[in-house]
Amino acid sequence: MKKPATILLVEDEKPMLEGMCDLLSIVDIGYDLRILTADNGKRGLEVVSKEIPDLIVSDIMMPQMDGLEFLRHLRQNPNWVQIPLIFLTARNDRRAIHAGTAQGAQLYITKPFNSGELLELIKTQLDRAFQLRASHQQNVDKLKKDLLQLLNHEFRTPLTYVTAYYEMLTYSVSQLQETHDFDEYLRGIQVGSQRLTRLVESLIQVMELRTGEMAYQFAEQAKPIADFNHLVQEAIQANRDQAEQYGVQIHYDDSVRFPPVLGIRDKLLTMLNALLDNAIKFTHHHKKSNIYILTYTTDNELHVAIQDEGIGFPLQIKNRLFDLFFQYKRPIFEQQGAGVGLTIAKGIAELHGGRIDVDSQKGVGSTFSLVLPIYDEQSQKPLPTTPKQPQATVLIVEDEPHLLEGLKDILELSIETYELTVLTAANGRLGLEILSEYHPHLIISDIMMPEMDGLEFLQVVRQNPAWVQIPFIFLTAKGEESDIHHGRRSGAEEYITKPYDTNELIDLVLKQLDRNFQMQNLQTQDFDMLKRSLLNLITPEFRLPLADVTRHSEALALGIEKIETEGELKESLRGIQASSLGLTQLVEDIITLAELTTGEAAQIYQLQAQAINDVGYVVEEAIKQVRTLTGGEQNIHLADIPPHLPPVFGVSTILLESVQRLVEAGERLQANGPHVQTYVTVYADAVEVHIAVRFDTPLPEATACDVEALFASDKPSTFDATSYDPGLRIVEGSVGLHNGRLSLDNNPETGVTYTIHLPVCRPPTP
Q: 588 pLDDT band (50/70/90 cuts)?
């Protein structure tokens, strides 16, 4: 089955437009094509606003809006910037060609054209577009899986400490063992609680940075700090135990005197702690075990460099080190934590008008340099700092040494908008060796080279998922039409023939760099949306059971010798148990919501879904579980379930949990507490099976409106569900997996009724 693809043709000459449509309809290029048309750029934008095509082929000279203006509008819209565009036009002068390609067209083809060659190039551009799309989706899927694994590990591991040691402590009490045996169990509970506390506090700090809450704190609390030296010493002292445990020595000249900076002490200390913690983690795995803290000032800036002799990082991950949830080789180095420390450090540095620079060499070590603006006591403002240019890396592959060095010099001298690093290789084979160590933002390659020519080099690059996104420019002496067509058909973004115009070359290099960073930013936004949605699962309410676990266990540890009766001991244990159960429920809610958010729950549903012929039994089991957990049998009334209910399609375990959570969430929302009577009814009509949960007390009007908004099928894309009961959010997501819906009836006379509506499963037609 051929892959469907949509092409938009923008052409004002009707015979040409019809001829192109006929050509694409008759000739098979390996895609199931659907053709959209427009007779000028303005109409083209109207078409794109309704449906985004996979490729656009456009003329340039058209009325109302020409092709160049049409392309400008496309490239200004983030949703359209990734659409490849081919100019097919009679304008064949060099200036017009350069203007078209420099502005962002993938190809510039002049009329009259060879039909076969045009179709080949259209296929090449579609292949490339789908290849980039698939690569991006693979990266998103991998990120989802990694984040779920991280959340599972980082929440469930310390929770296991709390629950397992609590159970051992309870068993010891029941066996009337000596109290001195309890110390180990209490320490285990406290270790788990403290680790969870650090994780939650870190994630809340990330939220404060992203929502602007911390910026508000800075505006309210920032003061001149004249003793930054003391802050560095505090950070060293806070990390000294960990450093000694790993055999790492921290070297610092504490006689240095710092100029004042404007900031919040505890935030700056958090940032220094994160940088030192990171240095210790990646130093103790290496044979050397030293960390050096070096300081110096420029006219306007204070620099604090934390230099380690650890494993170092490869250049290609340098820009990812500060990404939320990113950890370098987590399984190998057995890192704890969620990969948020450097994210927080970077955010705090930027909050203070500064930055963190990184210089690293694999196998040698890394230097993280904190740069803060010096506070001017006369103006009572921080001094202005010089903004850093974005860093870009270009790989040049050329076998002629003089041309190689000349092109390297041209790029380094002419490109001022990027801090450029130029890597070089004498042929494709050596180019692949460099790619194994570095990740350039652009490749410029000759074609005719020994050992591995440029065409073979490009083919290998395009086959590697890690390199598929890198734009590629051929810069070659092969200037025959057949050569140019072959180069374009191979999938290179640009084909430039020697001798070349330096200004045009620089323009095209900048275009490709700009476009690559623009695409990276769009992908980063997608990743950030996913990370933000997971981050929003962590709420400040997490602190309550955490604090309770810590408080009860500490009180028990301090007063265990003073407890005189078994009753007093069990009373303390009940406090730990209640907090532990609340904590466990929160963690399970977070993991379940994360699975719904990332699509993992949808994948499980698709694998396990089948006809459920016993919906009544599923509801009965759900109510049994609620009664067992809450001891509320006398308050929950299940009406007789009709026989022969029609089947629904889904997963019985997910449906069971949804009913259970709906009852529990409904009870939590009741203003009058747990003594409210609950009535559960199951019934069906010709279209749906209905599971109704009624509480005999209505909801406050404001609460009912909020719940109805959560249940609405037409929620806006900006709808924020983070303030809603997590149980209700899980029910809403799980019912959605079953193609069902939720409704709410808040009646002052009869109470509030939550109803799950599930479509009846029809047997397949013979």
A: confident
Closest C-alpha to 731, from 751, 757, 695, 752? 757
For the chain, what is the radius of gyration of the CA atoms? 32
Q: How far apart are CA 372 and CA 350, in angstroms?
A: 9
Residues 484-499: what's their mean pLDDT?
Answer: 86
Fold designation for 224-382:
Heat Shock Protein 90 (3.30.565)
CATH topology assigned to domain 391-528: Rossmann fold (3.40.50)
> Are 391-528 and 601-759 the same fold in CATH?
no
pLDDT score recorded for residue 334 = 47
The number of beta carbons lying within 10 Å of the beta carbon of residue 433 is 11
**pLDDT tens, position by position, 308-342:** 888 888 777 777 788 877 776 655 554 555 678 88
- In whole angstroms, what is the distance from residue 448 CA to residue 450 CA? 7
Say which DSSP state 57 is in. E
Number of H helices, E strands in the chain: 23, 26
More confident residue, 484 or 532: 484
CATH class belonging to 151-211+539-598? mainly alpha
**Alpha-carbon gap, residue 200 to 321, rounded angstroms:** 21
DSSP 169-197: HHHHHHTT--GGGHHHHHHHHHHHHHHHH
Q: How far apart are CA 280 and CA 289, in angstroms?
A: 9
For the ranges 125-134, 513-522, 559-568, 643-652, the lowest mean pLDDT is seen at: 559-568
